[in-house]
């Protein structure tokens, strides 16, 4: 693969718009996993859209109708599709706006395409025609208890709900989640599953340490090699924490997947070495997403690997069009 001088500049001057779809339940960690791509390319080149903006009904109406926002038909997926086609063609759209503070709609706003657009929410690629518009798709799938702990905390703090309201809503949403949101996992390019750390739930929660599994369809080859370096000296340092790394084959949704499973905390040098390799591959420098962190979690490592996958997908697209 030819090395671009500085891939950020190549992208800045390219007319291509790269769409990344991130599906998952409310508060499941979607933005947490895609933040690194904005850290690498900057806000000028990366923007995001929440599919929540495409709700058809406000909170009060949904409650009167006895439906949840997880129902396909409670969302204007046709408009989402038209908007994504326009954005891909470089056109500015008028995007609807949903306001979580009170569960109502705001004035639609103009949204101009950036070079990467992250579309995240309950149904970003819930139909075949939507799925066909994306260049890369991710499904975020924390196990039940983890997801509900995060949702309770987030909805109480940021969306003005009380705990009983969140619990009631959780139970009401569950069947719709499995019927309308979960099937996107079957067609995602990458699936992230999260469970409590095997090194202890409470300590893990305090330090944001979870067992994170990144699965991708088993492939013939990777676009570009990337090394995961672990310095053996680090393993014996006083400040080292426990961690485990494994790679397994499994068949969720009847697909042959390979998965990297990370639990615990690694020394930061491991991840800095990957950052240096991404700098070398892209010409973008410096990449310092985890600057100042004393330890690196599975979430951090998976974030970086996903960014590397997305960058490679985008480089491959450029190379393909240049031929
Ligand atoms: N990997 C993670 N490690 C630790 N905490 C996490 C992780 N992912 C999510 N959380 C917790 O869940 C909260 C919600 O995460 P995030 O905003 O990424 O979810 P989301 O799916 O993007 O939410 P939304 O419903 O707004 O789309 C975070 O503020 C954090 O407390
Ligand atoms: O599943 C969700 C996505 O985040 C929300 O519950 C949905 O957007 C409705 O929002 P609200 O509860 O604020 O009316």
UniProtKB/TrEMBL annotation:
Top EC class, one word: transferase
- Check the UniProt entry and state the signal peptide residues, or none: none
Please state the pathway this protein functions in, per its UniProt record. Answer: Carbohydrate biosynthesis; Calvin cycle
Q: Which GO terms describe its biological process?
A: reductive pentose-phosphate cycle
Its Enzyme Commission number?
Answer: 2.7.1.19
Record keyword NAD present: no
Keyword check for Nucleotide-binding, yes or no.
yes
The family line of this record is:
Belongs to the phosphoribulokinase family.
Q: What is this protein called?
A: phosphoribulokinase
Originating species: Methanospirillum hungatei JF-1 (strain ATCC 27890 / DSM 864 / NBRC 100397 / JF-1)
